[in-house]
Design goal:
The chain is built from twelve helices and no strands. By secondary structure, the protein is mostly helical.
Length: 246
């Protein structure tokens, strides 16, 4: 089975080329976002090497940002683990979806590295392909995307340490812009999503000034709000069967 995925196979060479081709725009987008992530890491006292390694081990913008925020606020390991778990739980669902598209006899080593390379964009590139998924295609995407993600974070850390504080704060806003770009399109299409986003902003502010809950760390408050709002949304606004079928 291992020889099946050898690059001597013309089909695997084609899959690698297609993966590299798909990974170029993904990697360029990662580089831009990870630069802002590196600035957030610098705010937490993390150097370029630590930032690059962290990004290489965690290919997730929201998860990486959550981890750096916990570090910058001197949070506990428990807070970090919980925040990272909640921020990255969606990748479990993506991995389950991809597991239905791979060869049942695919060796564990290939499953492991395919799981490591599961990101929103690489997942989208994989599911867009027809037939059984070839791990070589995933490797092609990762060869381009992962180093650019890591290198961008390192540059962001260096810039965050060299630039004036006001300029660092201005660049840090770019990461919030990325989050806004994620929530605005679905909020425009759905009144429910728009209402939930508005409620999230309001409750987040209330929790930051409320007498008891404001004494909790920012990480714990975020976890509580995430669980409460998502649970309420799932109960009050369940997905309709016809939506799932479509």
């Amino acid at each position: 089975m291992e020889n099946t995925y050898s690059l001597k196979n013309p089909d695997n060479k084609k899959a690698l080329y297609e993966g590299l081709k798909a990974g170029v725009p993904i990697g360029l987008g990662y580089f831009a976002v990870s630069f802002s992530l590196g600035i957030a890491a610098a705010n937490g006292g993390i150097g370029p090497v630590g930032g690059a390694v962290s990004s290489l081990l965690c290919l997730a913008s929201a998860g990486g940002y959550a981890g750096f925020m916990v570090i910058s606020t001197l949070g506990t390991y428990f807070e970090m683990v919980l925040m990272m778990f909640i921020a990255n739980i969606r990748y479990v669902l993506m991995s389950c979806a991809l597991s239905q598209r791979v060869d049942p006899d695919l060796p564990f080593v290939h499953r492991f590295f395919m799981g490591y390379l599961v990101t929103d964009e690489i997942f989208a590139a994989q599911v867009a392909r027809e037939g059984t998924l070839n791990p070589i295609f995933s490797y092609g995407c990762g060869i381009v995307a992962a180093p650019l993600w890591s290198f961008g974070t390192a540059l962001g850390c260096i810039a965050g340490q060299l630039m004036p504080i006001r300029l660092v704060s201005a660049f840090s806003v770019a990461l919030y812009g990325m989050f806004l770009a994620c929530i605005i399109p679905p909020a425009r299409k759905s009144r429910v999503v728009f209402g939930l986003v508005a409620v999230s902003f309001i409750l987040s502010y209330i929790c930051s000034v409320a007498p008891v809950i404001s004494s909790l760390s920012a990480g714990i408050r975020t976890v509580i709000l995430t669980v409460v709002i998502c649970s309420a949304a799932a109960i009050l606004f369940p997905r309709k069967e016809e939506d799932n079928e479509s």
